[in-house]
Amino acid sequence: MKKLFNNILVPVEFSKQTNQVVSQAVMIANHFRCDLHLLFVENNGMADAEKDIMQALTEGELADYEVELMELKATFLPMMEDGLQLITSLRKGSREQFVASYALQNAIDLIIVEKPRSILPMRFSRSFNINRISKKTGCPVLTVKGTARLEAIRNIVLPVDAHLPLRKVMFASYLAKHFNARIHLIALSEPGEEDNVENKVYLYKTYQLLRENTNLTVECHTVHGGNIADTTLEYARQINADLIVVNPGKEMLLSGFINRLFARLLFNESRIPVMTVAPAR
């Protein structure tokens, strides 16, 4: 199987869980023999949104962040296996813009981000839009909590809608092969819904694709529910899954007025790591 991961990017936030997330990234980098990039971007958008109560960063503050980046490098570089690099970069501006441009310029093929902590709408938080980043870069974006245990992936949940999710299958099967994990394919089943037939057709096609091209253990289920994101999360919790792999869009959109109001998506509610994979363009 072709090597899918060569360069991993972690946009760091210097939060309480940053060290844990970087530690997880180092483990993945070592496992897949990847170089690791740590990028900090001071987001001007946050200062613009609250310009009456915030001031722009001084050069001294930028220097402080550079020192913190160097401390991260000093801590984690010795943990990298021989021959692998740990590269740090500092930028000031639009976090989303710099993450996307850095990923494209440096051949990044996996982005690992901290699970967003803010309950504010995304446009007012420091977190960038993971849907857009995954589409702009073509990279899978893995959202994790600092307490995630990515070294022991055993169960991967992959929802299937009314299309063949080729890129999701590619990344899920790649991870499943490396970790000897089981893939759980699920599709919604709603009484009286015409889409049910199409969902089941593509569920079977996805199952058939995996059975004919891999020797992985694959389960295939239709699950009652009215929202694919809600149903995926509930199923993943029930089986104690280690990873959820979704497309950007409705597979991430939780039901409920509060979730819509505050732009809360699947990875906001999930303690389980979520990998967002944009379909092929």
Structure write-up:
The chain has a 10-stranded mixed beta sheet with strand order 3-2-1-4-5-10-9-6-7-8, with helices on both faces. The chain is globular, with a radius of gyration of 19 Å. The chain has 10 helices and 10 strands. The longest helix is centred in the last third of the chain and has 19 residues, at 195-213. The protein folds into 2 domains: 7-144, HUPs (Rossmann fold), CATH 3.40.50; 153-276, 3-Layer(aba) Sandwich (Rossmann fold). Helix 5 (130-137) links the parallel strand 4 and strand 5 (141-144). With 281 residues, the chain is an alpha/beta fold. The protein is 40% helix and 21% strand.
Question: How are the SSEs placed, and which strands pair?
Answer:
Blueprint: E1 7-11, H1 18-32, E2 35-43, H2 44-49, H3 59-76, E3 86-93, H4 95-105, E4 110-114, H5 130-137, E5 141-144, E6 155-159, H6 166-179, E7 182-189, H7 195-213, E8 217-224, H8 228-238, E9 243-246, H9 257-261, H10 266-269, E10 274-276
Parallel strand pairs: 1-2, 1-4, 2-3, 4-5, 6-7, 6-9, 7-8, 9-10
Antiparallel strand pairs: 5-10
Going by CATH, what is the homologous superfamily of the largest domain?
Answer: HUPs
Mean pLDDT: 85
The CATH architecture of the largest domain would be 3-Layer(aba) Sandwich
**Alpha-beta content class:** alpha/beta
Number of helices: 10
CATH topology of the largest domain: Rossmann fold
